[in-house]
What we know:
There is one protein chain. The protein is built from 8 helices and 7 strands. It has 230 residues and is α+β, with helices and mostly antiparallel strands. The protein has a domain at 1-85. The strands form 3 sheets. A 3-stranded antiparallel beta sheet has the order 1-2-3. It is globular, with a radius of gyration of 19 Å.
Amino acid sequence: MEFEETYRDTCRLLGALPLKGSIETTIKGLTGPLEEAMGGVVLLDNNGRFYLDIKGKGKMEMPLVAEGLRKLAMLSRLISTGSLLGEGYLFWDKPEADLNPRLIRLVAEVIYHLCQHGIQVFLATHSLFLLRELERFSKEEKFSNIQPRFFALMLKEGGVEVEQCTDIEKLEEHFTYMSDGFIAYESEEDDLDTVSSTVPSYDELTVRRQRSKVLDELVKQAQDLKMGYE
């Protein structure tokens, strides 16, 4: 029976030993926010089993951890082993899937930090909120050396049409509704009530659905995001 080699390679990289020495300071700077979001640190025992060591609560077997947090755990582990440091690539399909909407901003920031450390990241997403966060971080001074590119694929009668640019606002046909601003983060200090109030109601999105078929998916994302902040 054939076995997807990607899984084998991922398991091998996850099982590597964490790097030690002067690089640990850099690693901790990258994994610290992830560990805070997970509420613990990733451990690998002598039998090859992964655990999330939650402070004050003990170890939880990784299969029992929520899927979204397991993604963060994998990122943290691959960073600590050096697999996501220096030159390399990360291909990530739908980072937002199964992820608490509160953590979308964190994922976007971690992606930019990985790019700063030599990792080229390829993302495929259906989340407007993740795209907005990626665009927001691209405008911050600390990430000025990172030059992201955005692509939109549209099925047309003659085949698939591809648009690309450095500003998501310019993906005109695919994201004509973006200027309406489904959600806005003004600063890291925004409280949850402020952020939640920027999410449109279901009725508002229902009216806008006439503008694009893509809004069907955005309705669900907006509802999930609002529930996450309540």
